[in-house]
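Subgroup meeting minutes
Present: P.N., E.W., G.H.
Scribe: E.W.

1. P.N. recapped why we're keeping a running log of single-chain structure predictions: easier to compare across weeks, and new members can see raw inputs and outputs side by side.
2. G.H. added today's entry (227 aa).
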Amino acid sequence: MLIPSIDLQGGRVVQLQQGERPVIETDDLDGWLERFARFPIIQVIDLDAAKNTGSNRALVERICRERRCQVGGGVRTPAHAASLLDAGASSVIVGSALFSGGAVQTGTARAFAETVGIERLIAAVDARGTAVAIDGWRTVTPIGVTAAINALEDHVGGFLATLIDGEGMLGGIDMGVISTLRQATRRRLIAAGGIRSHAEVAALEAIGVDAVVGMAIYTGVMTLEAE
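Output recorded in log:
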């Protein structure tokens, strides 16, 4: 399944390379919501909240009212996750809160699951190289992505694996890495990071992986219609 992404920063829709360098910045949220209307779900990430530099909560809540979406970015407490579900999100993505002190916080994951339900909880295991990166991808932990998945397997309903080195670069996703992660979990797996074609989306779907696509759509490299 193709999941279009809406990333929010400074009150605008943006697309960044590797989470840092802006390529697309636009105020046309309505236009993109209309373009994405036929998709079963949209991914919405509050980048300011993820980096702890601000919040786009009002925009996030508005999108949740208008479209079915999975929401992440700066979700640090179970209460915050629950409030997003109350605002209309279908599921919540939690990353940094699950990792601290160089370890996976399974107790925190359990607390999130008890509050929102395992089936509505997605763990972000975003990778720089083979290690989990947190704090808006600015901090690389000593935790391997596969190890993180193994530790969290019983506490979450799915995983979002963004390959940061390829994010926004339009170079294609590393299918070998994603295939390895697919084998590591029986849970839902969502991949992102460089996807640039419907052929890649189909290849991911063939191994049971959903695909989040942003830069390729916003730049016109990839159409919204299957090729």
